Amino acid sequence: MPSLPPLGPSPTPLVHVVQRGETLLGIAIRYAVELEQLLLANPGIDPRFLSIGQEVIIPGPEGEPVGAILPTPTPLPVTISGVRCFPTPSESLWCLVGVRNETSLAMEGVSVLVTLFDASGNVLVHEPAYGPLNLLVEGGLMPLAVFFQDPPGDWAIASANPLSAVQANEVESRYANLDIEQAVSEPSPDGLRWHFRGEIGLPSTALLPVVRIRLLIIAYDEGEEIVGFSYWETEGEVKPGDLRTFDLTVFSLGPVIRHVEILTEAQFAP
Hints:
The chain is mostly beta strands and about 270 residues long. The protein folds into three domains: about 15-70, LysM domain (Membrane-bound Lytic Murein Transglycosylase D, Chain A, Roll), CATH 3.10.350; about 80-170, Immunoglobulin-like, CATH 2.60.40.3230; about 175-270, Immunoglobulins (Immunoglobulin-like). About 10% of the residues lie in helices and about 45% in strands. It is built from four helices and 16 strands. It has helices spanning about 25-30, 35-40, 65-70, 170-175; strands spanning about 15, 55-60, 80, 85, 95-100, 105-115, 125-130, 135, 140-150, 155-165, 180-185, 195-200, 210-220, 225-235, 245-250, 260-270. Strands 3, 4, 5 and 9 form a four-stranded antiparallel beta sheet that branches. Strands 6, 7, 8 and 10 form a four-stranded antiparallel beta sheet that branches. The longest helix has 7 residues, at about 25-30.
């Protein structure tokens, strides 16, 4: 393990270089730091899309002291819906959970830990779930999903606990407004899938390009519970005035889809 850096007014932080197959949660565990602290030390990082060679600042005892580079974190409470799990024909398991931001602050880096228990309450297995979008606005709902390839046969209960949710700063200067044009929505006759196509882009009045555009479609059942979601993103930088064509289908993992919600996100290029 790296030795402690010398104390001083300008300590040099420890930087971890992302390797193939690594996750942000795995990096946090390796250096014995909280995932939330790792997100605070690396504002704007997307825990779902780490790139090989990307540099991650490690706060705390294994790197620069937390107090030197992090603000004092303000707990951001989130409301977590009950976990709904749906078995697949191959005997795997999809589990969905909704996280709602009921504060007056926008959040980033929302993640939860989904755990499967047996009937006696013993932990069998757990997996982290990350939001498909980085930003969760005030009053917004974010769907998260986790896939258990080979779930224990005796699992009986599923629950989710928050892992991270940090305050999003300078949202208006970091995230762009987007235009959706010629959108077409086509539900299937049985209500188990919903097809969308159209164009989305950055207004010509925008001052900067964006790194990528992300589009999320959330499917709800009659009881307003999430039954599926589908995600799409552009490849490469999008310039002001550019339009990109999207075409995707959201499937229900169980009940009939009664309505859908479309969310978009784009961060300005640095």
